[in-house]
């Protein structure tokens, strides 16, 4: 991926720091950022001379450019492709990765580079976390969803049958490179799906950012370079602020990142994984959560309408006509936020503020779902 951008676009570059003591790292964001990978590596992993590039077969071109950049600075490289889709996050994939890494003499002088979306990031991240009890990881996320969420914060892992993300590790990357040019070829539906998580950060933490999103819908939908870098950087800053305070999800703060996700995960499992994109389910889930907050008297109708209008202007769904409230309620009982059998929801009380609310009655939750049909 050649850097074909004019100097005037350098203002579209953003740097976000995640401060976690010795596990701190940078997120470099902007068009053509991949070209700066060699200098990033020499700063962050100066002892490494071998790169294991784990990539989604859909972004082979970006993986090959990554390999060329490594070769240019004297790195040996190993290329491991991963079939697209959630089914790659499984035990046989991780076994294949570890065996390939071993066969290709991977050691503590190696760095794993994850090139792709959330599936590759989670899988390659777990491979890095487990191999030789942990080798460095660089995330090169190529989808909007992974750029604003899964590549940041160190959650890695795989699924077991019937249990998503149940085996994994917290393993922070040494560097995250977000080359916004990778979004140019991302299918429109996938790009828009990622915007749901961007809106989420505005609603849960950043009132001014929410207003920015409302005022810049056209620039965002047309992927205007400065708007892209700004929305990704603000999202990463918000996520970093939360992760810095609750890296391992022990205080409950990190759970606020799951606003809308209790409904969303249930929707995904009821509709069949892959039918709804994750971000689409999150968008509908946020609308359901806002409905629930209104039913509980926590927010007014204006809040619900404001969030819904923005999501819809960004071409995201907010309704799920086929969602059966009873079926969703049952599916929600598997949520990780179930504690001693009682469901807890992340609910807003105003723009920029959400709380973990325990003991929500079934009748209220099903009414909130009904209002989003
Ligand atoms: N995606 C939620 C988290 O990283 O905690």
What does this molecule look like?
By secondary structure, this protein is an alpha/beta fold. Helices cover 44% and strands 18% of the residues. The protein is built from 14 helices and 11 strands. The longest helix has 21 residues, at 225-245. The protein is globular, with a radius of gyration of 20 Å. The N and C termini lie far apart (43 Å). The structure holds glycine.
Give short descriptive properties of this protein.
373 residues; alpha/beta; seven-stranded mixed beta sheet; two-stranded antiparallel ribbon; 18% strand; disordered N terminus; binds glycine
- Strand tally, please? 11
- Uncertain runs are 1-8
Computed structural class: alpha/beta
Helix content: 40-55%
Question: Averaging pLDDT over every residue, what do you get?
Answer: 94
Gyration radius (Cα, Å) is: 20 Å
Count of alpha/pi helices: 14
Which ligands, by name, code or SMILES, are bound?
glycine
Instruction: Name the strands of the widest sheet in spatial order.
Output: 1-2-9-6-5-3-4
Form type: globular
Order of helices and strands: EEHEHEHEHEHEEEHHHHHHHHEEH
Strand content: 15-25%
Distance between the terminal alpha carbons, to the nearest Å?
A: 43 Å
User: Largest sheet, if any?
Assistant: 7 strands, mixed
